[in-house]
Amino acid sequence: MDDSVAEHSRPLRILIADDSDSDRLILKTLLKRLGHEVLDVANGLDAVSVFQREAPDLVLLDALMPVMDGMEAARQIKLLAGERLVPLIFLTSLSEAGALARCLEAGGDDFLGKPYNRIIIEAKIKAFNRMRLMHRTLSDQRDLIRERNRQLTEEQEIAKRVFDNVAHSGCLDASNIRYHASPLSIFNGDVLFASPRPAGGMLIFMGDFTGHGLPAAIGAMPVAEIFYGMANKGFNGQDVLREINQKLKRILPTGMFCCGAMIEADFKLNQLQIWNGGLPDGWLIRTTGELLALPSRHLPLGILAPDQFNADFERVGAAPGDRVLMMTDGFLESADSAGNVFGEQGVTGTLDRLDDGDHPFDAMMSAVHRFTGNFEDGDDLTLCCLEMMDEAGLATLPDRAAPSALAGPAEWRCSYEIRERTLGEFSPLPLLLHICMEVPGLRRKSGEIYTLLAELYNNALEHGVLELPSEWKHSPEGFGRYYAERNRRLANVEGHYIRFTLHHSLKPDGGRLRVICEDSGQGFDFHNHPSVAPGNSPTMSGRYAGRGLLLLKRLAETIRFHEQGNHVEIVYDWQFARTAENRDD
Amino acid sequence: MPIQTRRYDDGQTLVIRIEGRFDFSTHQAFRDAYEHGDPHIRNYIVDLSDTTYLDSSALGMLLLLRDYAGGDSAGIVIENCNNDVRRILSISNFEQLFNIR
């Protein structure tokens, strides 16, 4: 404020161009008496060159002058001034309207009639000075905003690169995932992560933080770290969700939260588990054309305290080729030029019209483009489609685990037992896998190791401790019954335990991991079991039915049962890199 | 004024009524509506009969009110939602936190 007051009273540099010596002298004296600094010339050409050299604040030009007249000088001076506002007032005794208009067209801002009136001159100079200063303030502010905006964009670009490194270490590029997330979607608060699970299958998380800009982006980092860190170690979707919720509850202010959905795909069991808290309906699109909505059934993440948080997933069977589609509400809010939104009708309409050959992802993207008519406006959205596939396709998943240069422990042994209540509350698999992954030679085999541990553990828990018959899982109704009964029986496991003993030793060409899994269950008659007795093909009955035992047999060197069948021992050998690669086909 | 408040005769219930769009632009007015109230208020009614639209920042503001009113023990009723508003509240499963009628 003080600055501008000073500006207003500061003397101006004024350029006068008039070929009449007497008029010029009168004007010059008058302006000097008002306290201004005056430069004076006698023709247009000199006016232009003095303007260029002295950069005056204001120019008074006679319309008719020799060498170069006022009109031409005005044009050139305005050109030189560029964005700067230099008021240009014509001095004229002309009174014909056409001539006056030409003065303004040439770039003049006003006229002063001859002979001069001191009061009018003073008033006009003040008025034009105010306008000049306001113009300068606005230009300065505009430049400042432009500069700040450039800075912000640059900072966002850097933040985005950091975020990319953290967020996109997963398997979003896998052949069975299609997605759209605008490059700066992180600043809309959208996140999308995907990770292969060590046991096979995939975990996908889509999230949408409240708000926009930096506040919305800031929660994304810890979520990415938790997701990738835990998924790599074999934690399941429930555990990851609980951890994310707890973290966000702690770090986000009340009123900020994250709508999200977690999808856990198991290509072995042909099963999907879904948790949706606050995102629009997801859709399961079966190869048969059947559509199943996957609605939000939970509060968003970061609202409820850990003890109130519900991480129950919905479980649905899904065959290879079935696809799940998830989106953030930016997708539903994509608007056309009249402000109408694509909405749920847009989504269901598109899905209803799907033809056999259409990929739902492509159909959805082109429907929303058609609707908005302008892709730029509709770019604040995230859409992701996951396709179920054959277990065999797992081999193509990218393995991004960075190799470690450290030599890990080679000769070790450990025993870990979980008991009673903990059987229902805690999975020992991530911990056990973590211990095994300390051996660099085993790290490349994390998927196989996890599968071995998981098969042993699940068999010990579900068939050993809980005595659940696996036949139930072979029909859709039985499937539900199996899991309901599993939860019921887990509440009643007094006196039960599962004990793992791991033993690792080096061999000349690699190493050997011996895993013993014992449980407190009844065991089974392995001597007469069709899939244990040599030479027999496995049948679908009893403990270790079907795939479980086959997997163990395929992955391990040997598998042996002891005592009454509740003590299983497997041996897993690995070779140093070159040999090992030859074995991988 | 897009946000109006009135008090029940019992002096313990505050009605907050939001007109038009309930989004970030109403943030300050919404907070003012309950934060400077008198200490006798026990119950809150958020009247959305004239609310045309509600976004996620409004959901956040409702959570702020819930915290202010005592968290899990807060007595808050959200009433008279139109279908669109109701839909947004139910996608986020806010029935679990608020009495919506």
Describe this structure in words.
The complex is a heterodimer of chains A (585) and B (101). With 585 residues, chain A is of the alpha+beta class. Chain A has 19 helices and 20 strands. In chain A, strand 3 (58-62), helix 4 and strand 4 form a beta-alpha-beta unit. Chain B has one domain (3-100): STAS domain (Transcription Regulator spoIIAA, 2-Layer Sandwich), CATH 3.30.750. In chain B, strand 1 (3-7) and strand 2 form a beta hairpin. In chain B, helix 1 runs parallel beside helix 2 (56-68). The mean pLDDT of chain B is 88. Chain A: Residues 13-129 form the Response regulatory domain. Chain A: Keywords: Hydrolase, Phosphoprotein. Chain A: GO terms for molecular function: phosphatase activity. Chain A: The modification 4-aspartylphosphate is found at residue 62.
Highlighted features:
heterodimer; A: 585 residues; Rossmann fold; Phosphatase 2c, domain 1; Heat Shock Protein 90; five-stranded parallel β-sheet; five-stranded antiparallel β-sheet; B: 101 residues; alpha/beta; Transcription Regulator spoIIAA; globular; STAS_dom (chain B); STAS_dom_sf (chain B)
Task: Summarize it.
The complex is a heterodimer of chains A (585) and B (101). Chain A has 585 residues and is of the alpha+beta class. Chain A contains 19 helices and 20 strands.
